[in-house]
Design brief:
Rossmann fold, five-stranded parallel sheet, two-stranded antiparallel sheet, 33% helix, FMN dependent NADH:quinone oxidoreductase, NAD, FMN, NADH:quinone_OxRdtase_FMN_depd, flavoprotein
Length: 214
């Protein structure tokens, strides 16, 4: 898979179990629309991790990860094929958009499965002098996060393992330019959630201030 440096690519990952009425998907729709407006020549690749969930890694996958390429058997090549494809897709993207609700204080399991497929030694990170160095340096990232309860910015902050976890994982593989757009209280009365709050819209409007050209 190749990508022209003059044609930006947005890789969008949705992970909410709800395909209808999902607040994280609605938030990502707004961000995607803003990205398209900023990059009319760009292309968007969507991956719905909830409806087409990546396989959880198993013993065969792990064996394939740690087997030299020239020694991979057909079975091990098959076990690592999804990882290979997901990593290649990530590396050609110029912007990564991850849409995720908080489930039990962390990420939905399909998103965790995708992470386990792409965080891979020798492909997305390496060790130099015992220290990890990320190998995925091209894309910037936007996290579209939704929280059922209000207060994760203050009194419930210690229970937020969604945003810090995603930021840490992306930093680990080399993605440093990370912006977050989030909404809280999505479990409230739907009437209170009509439309996008002004602060959220303002945050979205501030994204992608500089077109991606490399």
């Amino acid at each position: 898979m190749t990508a022209s440096p003059y044609r930006p690519m947005l890789l969008r990952l949705d992970s909410s179990a709800r395909t209808e009425g999902s607040h994280s998907r609605q938030l990502a729709d707004q961000i995607e629309a803003h990205w398209r407006a900023r990059h009319p020549d760009g292309r968007v690749q969507r991956r719905d991790l909830a409806t087409e969930a990546p396989p959880h890694i198993d013993a065969q996958t792990i064996a394939g990860f740690y087997t030299p390429p020239e020694q991979l058997s057909p079975a091990l090549r098959a076990a690592t094929a999804r990882s290979d494809a997901s990593i290649a897709e990530l590396k050609v993207a110029t912007t990564l958009l991850i849409a995720s609700p908080m489930y039990n204080f962390s990420v939905p399991s399909p998103l965790k499965a995708w992470i386990d497929q792409v965080v891979r030694a020798g492909h997305t990170f390496t060790l130099e002098g015992g220290r990890p160095r990320g190998l995925v340096e091209r894309p910037s990232a936007v996290l579209a996060l939704t929280y059922g309860l209000p207060g994760y910015g203050d009194q419930l902050a210690t229970l937020d393992h969604l945003r810090p976890y995603l930021q840490s994982v992306l930093n680990f593989i080399g993605i440093r330019d990370i912006q977050v757009v989030s909404t809280e209280g999505t479990a409230a009365d739907p009437a209170q959630l009509a439309g996008i709050p002004a602060a959220v819209k303002e945050r979205i409007d501030s994204l992608f201030s500089e077109p991606v050209t490399t």
